[in-house]
Amino acid sequence: MTTQAEHRMPTATSASAPPADAGLLPSAEPVRFLDDDGGPAPGDAHGRYERPSTELLRRAYDAMVLGRRFDAQATALTKQGRLAVYPSSRGQEAGEIGAVLALRETDWLFPTYRDTMALIARGIDPVEALTLLRGSWHCGYDPMATRTAPQCTPLATHAPHAVGVAHAARRRGEDTVALVLIGDGGTSEGDFHEALNFAAVFHAPVVFLVQNNGYAISVPLSRQTAAPSLAHKGVGYGVRSERVDGNDPLAMLAVLTDAVESARAGGGPVLVEAHTYRVEPHTNADDDARYRDHDEVEAWKRRDPIARLEAHLRSRGELSDDDVAAARSAAEEFATQVRERLSEEATGDPADLFAHVYAEPTPQLREQAGWLAEELAR
Amino acid sequence: MTVTLGKALNAALRDAMREDDTVLMFGEDVGALGGVFRVTDGLAAEFGDDRCFDTPLAESGIVGMAVGMAMNGFRPVVEMQFDAFAYPAFEQIASHVAKMRNRTRGAVGLPMVIRVPYAGGIGGVEHHSDSSEAYYAHTPGLKVVTPATVADAYSLLREAVADPDPVVFMEAKKLYWAKDEVALPVTTEPFGTAVVRREGSDATLVAYGPAVPVALEAASAAAAEGRSLEVVDLRTLVPFDDETVAASVRKTGRCVVVAEAAGFAGVSAEIVARVQERCFHSLWAPVLRVTGWDVPYPPPVLEKYHLPGVDRVLDTVDRLQWDDAPDPRFLAGSR
């Protein structure tokens, strides 16, 4: 991917006061701290960003290990017929976990259907988080209590909601930030652009995290855009943008924390593009051999975000064999619980069909609920 | 006091905003201009740009942002400027506005109003006169309201703003300048209640929105010819008042549905289905309809041939088998 040198991001700016005009553009290369093996990236690849604290990186490591094990368990449960479908985010752990760790509990997260791992990191009960993908009619968790919107299936349509929630909070003088997760395919949808524009015009504290994983089901990025990068789409709306190595957990945490705090401090919206890769097929129903080479997948697997973070922390003596074993053991226990709790078929009360269409059912819905009850009583 | 329907809507918004500072009004040209139909006139001046404001020109963004604000403590009212310009917002309306309460098992309600100036008869050029109510009425989770009187314009809009569910508030453009003697504020019958606007005994005209004045005028003309027509104004399409409609048709034994929208798969078709389900044994004739033709809305050069008028309503009433002869229009082999 080519970028123009004159669009290079200045290397030292304050988080809360983005520079004018050209400062909106992303860095020429994605921000990274680590090379593909977890060693230090050469030169000033991390730009103005500071390395996240070891404490934060350790939390991220544990959450990523757990997230990946959960993801594998969910994929397995789908093959056993316990879930209707599961869109895996394996390989995108740095984005899934980084987005959540950059937020406070009082901030809002707007996930897509691929972001169940982020829901787990957010502390949502795994059975609640998988409710939708078990084929239920509702999202499973309480969005108000968890400050997490229902997983959005129509692409990018939740982005304007994030703008509204953030703008509402700012109007009341709260310092809440909304972070919305979007994929590369979603950037082609009109709502992505309308949301960026509205966020910029109303100076709403929103962080748009585009996890560019290379494919919208089967369609490669080259068919989504001719732009130099997806992050370049921000400048047209006056939105400061950044590009990150999405498989570098240090870079993801550094950039997302900076973006969230910049928005919180009144710096307006930020667009972050994470360059990552969907290691698994789109869902269990997808056959990715029809549209991509095995070699490509293997190349990305070698840039594994968990392995890179593990190598980095070990090299600094900040992660021991015991720590790794403890993280894996916790993840295994979590997966076992998920497996056991999902061992039964999902069921539903037919009366629930009518219960939440309106605050109070209309006379017609009450009538239809009665007809269904009669039918079931026969 | 003589009030136009447009002014009554304006007063309803002003009073709602005065009583509850979480009520917001936004959309295109609703600020300094006061809306292209002046329904938001003076609101930005009184409440400030924080509470009545212009947005970028993007209807999906407008409705989507309203969803977020409704999720987070506000009661947004958004204006869609014209019926056909609301179509870019349709995905937001159908996939999110209508479904949010259900997909969150009741945890997230969306108290918001989408105001849609709709229907024709004002000489608008193309894309300015669609009767789009069926799209919304067909979408579970939305309430769909359309006032035909000045008092209802005020009262139903206040009720819409106060409602815990999203309301698509359809404003018949040609009625904005309709006048009536009304002391505001006024409270009329609640959502889900149709009203008999004129009592009669020979046949029932069921109408809503822009068709109500047409039905009333037709009833007056019929009375001069010795035929007594009852006129039912639906007021809210969702929730629908089956009771009032069925009671009227059971009483008169004949029914014509009058609507400006194209008839095929429209709200008028739903009304006919509901009437025949409930009133079949009281009917002396098939339920007939007077609707717009099934054509794209014709701009002013041809719209007079399209809009259901008094003559077409009276001709249709004449076909209600008063002499027990079958309606020749629908006889087998008649065309």
TrEMBL record, chain B:
Keyword line: Oxidoreductase, Thiamine pyrophosphate
Domain spans labelled Transketolase-like pyrimidine-binding: 3-178
UniProt xrefs under Pfam families: Transket_pyr, Transketolase_C
GO molecular function: magnesium ion binding; oxidoreductase activity
Requisite cofactors: thiamine diphosphate
Organism superkingdom: Bacteria
Entry-linked PANTHER family: PYRUVATE DEHYDROGENASE E1 COMPONENT BETA SUBUNIT, PYRUVATE DEHYDROGENASE E1 COMPONENT SUBUNIT BETA
UniProt name for this protein: Alpha-ketoacid dehydrogenase subunit beta
